[in-house]
Amino acid sequence: MTLETFIQQRLPLEPVPGVPEIRLHRAGPSSGLTRLADADPDFGSPYWARPWGGGLALARHVLDRPEIVAGQRVLDLGAGSGLVAIAAALAGAEEVRAVDIDPYAVTAARLNAAANGVTIVAEQADLLDGDPPNIDLMLAGDLFYDPDLATRAEAFLRRCVAAGIAVLIGDPFRAPLPTERLAAVAEYPVADFGDPDGAARAAAVFKLI
Known about the structure:
This protein has a single domain (about 5-209), classed as 3-Layer(aba) Sandwich (Rossmann fold). By secondary structure, the protein is of the alpha/beta class. Helix 6 links the parallel strand 6 and strand 7 (about 165-170). The protein has a seven-stranded mixed β-sheet, sandwiched between helices. A two-stranded antiparallel sheet has the order 1-2. It contains six helices and nine strands. The protein has helices at about 5-10, 35-40, 55-65, 85-90, 105-115, 145-160, and strands spanning about 15, 20-25, 75, 95-100, 120-125, 135-140, 165-170, 180-190, 200-209. The protein is globular and about 45 Å long.
């Protein structure tokens, strides 16, 4: 069974909590993700199979404020499932790239985009140590969960701002998030993965300052 077939058959398309305009292939208790892990020694965390708080906030913000992305060249950094990229495409972005280091995430993002009737370019890459890409808007959800990654991500995003790229960050106030160097522009209640069923927490959309 190919990865595409596995995702399509074992991870059903479901509306996203708080962002019901979008459906994603989402993992459940009987999805059998351990089979992928057993078959591939390089298999990492299947974060791409679940929506996360920062991405939920960013996706909701983009759909509620389509003027942010309309006509823009947009990149969803650390795209995971492609939720934010799909929201940007639905909101009228001219061009959307979904970039992630995990090949499973890239495949999931491509399948999720097709399931929602939008076109995105899903690509596997680590951009954090490179030059800013040729885009208008960077959307970065859930990148600030690890201190080392947070340091790299902030440095890259500041280079993007210096190059004239607008940057929006989505995060549910995780510890490594440098809130003292960010300005919150919106806040949303989200059901972050791992929280008890029915629980909601605050996640915000930020700008670098």
